[in-house]
Give the backbone structure.
Amino acid sequence: MLDGVGFGPAPDTDAYGDTGSDTLGNVARAVGGLRLPNLERLGLGAIAPLAGVSAVAAPTAAHGLALPASAGKDSTSGHWELCGLTLAHPFKTYPDGFPASFLEALTAATGRGVLGNCVASGTEIIARLGPEHLASGKWILYTSADSVCQLAAHEDLVPIAELYAACQAARGLLTGPETVSRVIARPFVGDAAGGWKRTERRKDFSVPPPGETLLDRLVAAHIPRVGVGKVDDLFAGRGIISMHPRTNAESYRAIASALSVMKRGLLFANVIEFDQSWGHRNDVPGFHAGLLALDAALPGMLAPIRDDDLVIITADHGNDPTTPSTDHSRERVPVLALGPRIRPRSIGTRQSFADVGQTLAEFLGVPALAAGQSFLSEIWDG
């Protein structure tokens, strides 16, 4: 699951304020064309036109697009939808900051006051409020166009356990009509002279899924689940435990390692840096370099695949680094399904990310999910 790697506008992209967003397409145009030979062979260029990536005549993977069916464009709703749970209403956002009642309750619960309380870029607000935070000991609190509450604190001032506890307190306060998708701990280090840097000890505190997901079905059937990245955070720890690599490169190694030892079950990996490091920071060169590194890593990462394995590469939303926005974008996502028994063919445009989860439910032999249409019969040989 390539976090933030959208592949062009969905039918309702304009309604989300994301006109012009096309993460893969715009990055490809910005760098004069992508050179991704391994993804090209799989069929990435056969999904839709993509500068520099050819539509090969005989792709080695089943390939297509999936449209978002849930309301929203955040990682939580995207991951839930991929696992068969769609949302009719988006999580609440706070474009004018959080209400005074929440700030007062958070201060009472944690013993620290609040700075910021506005929509901001994480790197910008830390640079702006870092000195005052160090002087006052108050939390740096901010949000974005997405449904998130982010608490930042300097690791030399606030122990990481205290920051996590404060986020747990905020999670407990932001419920009912005030519910946000995620409360995120944002530890950082540095100073005004040498610069500020967010550390790898970010942690997401998500609201639990309101219905059954693919993971719940697998738990009931005693089928193993292994997570890589923030998957467990996005499901509030329900049904999966994850290892948490700091970078994409570490994630690729973790995927290869898990594939080499797993006998059965689901390996669910979130590859984070396309979203966290490059999309949110409008870093086109970084995003481009990340795509090149992904392509180069694919053969080694997927080498342990066995004859009866199914691999699906997809995404949860867009995060176009070429647009003025630094937030997620409402986009369709690529779907590449591969393995020794896959029949390479187009699966067209799926009407929901949930088609991925429904396909996996059928593949793993658990009861059908509430949403999605399986495409397993279209692609599986045997």
Remarks:
- The CA atoms of residues 52 and 346 lie 20 Å apart.
- Residues 100-206 form a domain with the Alpha-Beta Plaits fold (CATH 3.30.70.1250).
- The chain has a mean pLDDT of 96.
- The chain has two domains: 14-89+207-379, 100-206.
